[in-house]
Amino acid sequence: MTMIFGIPLQALFGQLLIGLINGSFYALLSLGLAIIFGLLRMINFAHGAQYMLGAFVAYLLLTFAGIGYWPALILAPLIVGGVGAVVERFFLRQLYDLDPLYGLLFTFGLALTIEGTFRYFYGSSGQPYATPPALAGGANLGFMFLPIYRGWVVVVSLIVCLATWVLIEKTKLGSYLRAATENSTLVQAFGVNVPVLLTFTYGLGVALAAFAGVLAAPIYQVSPLMGSNIIIVVFAVVVVGGMGSIMGAIVTGYMLGIAEGLTKVFYPEASNIVIFVIMAIVLLIRPAGLFGRDA
What we know:
Elements: E1 3-4, E2 7-8, H1 9-40, H2 47-65, H3 69-90, H4 100-122, E3 138-140, E4 145-147, H5 148-170, H6 172-182, H7 184-189, H8 194-220, H9 226-241, H10 246-266, H11 274-285
Antiparallel strand pairs: 1-2, 3-4
Helix pairs in contact: 1-5, 1-8, 1-9, 1-10, 2-3, 2-4, 2-8, 2-9, 3-8, 5-6, 9-10, 9-11
């Protein structure tokens, strides 16, 4: 058996795959957070609950409407993103001119409300969500066994992350969104409906979280606690990448996922804290984050 630093090659690649899978979820979730913070200047503490909500909407679509994984992968983010747009329109919009702390407290309360509601109806145990038949099984690559669904998660999350980056950074819509955050009055003077843009921005960030939730459902079961278990790590990823940095959220999400996976191989005891250690080091050296802009 081939060994690297005394570690079997198959075990090393297996943990790298786990790191890439975790990194895929970190990237999608931190990307949604970065969009909301970068364009709305609001910390969305409900992001983990909206990730969980995406998984539950997929589960409920399957249970009560017989709608399977593939339609749910589109419908669940649209539904949850639509709910997010309503929340922004009728609640968050009232807080933009106040201290940012009010927005944080509101979204924190929203997260507790969503999580508490699903815990009331479903308890704390997870609900199973089957892997779609087209992505069942795995492939023997020689040096490791690759579950097809997990490979799909890595690929589709990367595609969605890069497509979102192109939308924000390279399109006219993205330029309107970025301009509206800098000088909304001037942008509105050119006939652009800024309130609609802000609603779209929040809905997009929430939809990304819900999309990650649907992807996670066959891997981690659908549980009311799945959002609270991951959101603290995702906030750390956003801080390391740079608050509001779109590319920083993507790159750092995958990078820290891989770092976590490798730590499980070489020093398993530190795998739960390695991301926070990296965050502390980055903040000491570069407080704005790896991709953030210094004030």
